[in-house]
Amino acid sequence: MERKPYDLLLKSGRVVDPANRSDGVLDVAIKDGRIAAVEAGINPDLAEEVIDAENRLVTPGLIDTHAHVFEHVTGRFGLNPDRCGVQAGVATLVDQGGPSLMTLPAFRHYISEPAHSRVLCFLSAYLVGGLEGHHYPQLYSPEDVDVKRTIEVGLANRDLVKGIKAHAEVGGKSRWGMDVIKQARDIARGIGVPLYIHLGQIWPEAGKGIDDPDTVIEELVPLMKEGDILAHPFTRHPGGFISSKTGELHPIIRAGLDRGLRVDVGHGSHFSFEMARKVIEAGILPNTLGADMHGYNTDAGQAKTANRETSPFFGKTRFCLTHAMTEMLALGVSLNEVIATVTSNAAGMLAIDDEVGSLSVGQIADVSVLQQVKGRFTLVDNSGVTVNASEAIRPLFMLREGVRFDADSPVVVEPMDLAG
């Protein structure tokens, strides 16, 4: 029997595709793992399988730009990639600084290749990568960086390596100044990829410490160039976007953004509603929305090796990428802007927008199907600040190259758990 023109048809969903400025009730047809048509009124008889998407959001496959999924190798830190990925409605994950020049072969063989999710990385600038979630600051000194060899490894693995990850924070600066950041910058320039910088204190200060946490951002921004990325704009820890002296947005941030720097939320346990309001009210919206889930802040069904007593990074509240989307909506960011942060903007940051990040005909058929749940919800950050929300985003299922995966991961935050 002759096969029908389409393998699968998503029928009558609200298609939100920021890359194509599309927001309306449309059908999405898929053939051979690619987007075949996006238009209204496609005849269902033309598809081998039809899925009713009425009253559902249909978006390009979600992209999490800040993940930690180097499972087992990074100890308690790394989560299972598919639990954070396709089983949570997310097509693409970017491990931020888990693999290093020494461990990238293991990342490719044990994580990226077997995962159903697309798993990329920003290579760690440090020899040890993200072992135990940067729990031991003595492993992250300038002596623990090999600029030349990291460039060589990055260039040889450009299919996986989409950037370089490093940290600019109070504890590191008190030990080594900005030396590690300069090394990381040199690595990124040598490979030709963006530099992604963590902001907000991780490690305790050493020696005499530093008098002013603002000096971290003041010395960092001039080292960065267009396309580089500042992470954790909403951090509750010192050394971020909000000046410790004025309590307002540091002026050097706006100057950096005017030069083309990008911003990734990197939610994690750093996220603060108070800081988020200040940054957004200052007119700054993040380009991308990374979840920053890891074994110290998320129970993803992994072995109970992390606990709140031993880890300063453990979160008090549950979250995931779609929950972070809900929080951005509650802060007044529009639905189309939020979806752009996890689709077209994210694909552009990774330089993979020729294949994913939109529902353009011919692109890979990564498609997320979400439910926009209306109700009264209470959102809580790790400082205990609450925000009321009238809607929540819940992943239902996704198509990864046209193959369906239901969103049944333990990381998914159910809206009913947030009912106010």
UniProtKB/TrEMBL annotation:
Domain Amidohydrolase-related: 57-370
Family annotation (InterPro entries): Amidohydro-rel (IPR006680), Deacetylase_Atu3266-like (IPR020043), Metal-dep_hydrolase_composite (IPR011059), Metal_Hydrolase (IPR032466)
Residue sites binding Zn(2+) 1 per the record: 66, 68, 165, 292
Binding annotation for Zn(2+) 2: 165, 198, 232
Keywords: Hydrolase, Metal-binding, Zinc
Source organism, top-level taxon: Bacteria
List of residues that carry N6-carboxylysine: 165
One Gene Ontology term of the molecular function aspect: hydrolase activity, acting on carbon-nitrogen (but not peptide) bonds
Name of protein: Amidohydrolase/deacetylase family metallohydrolase
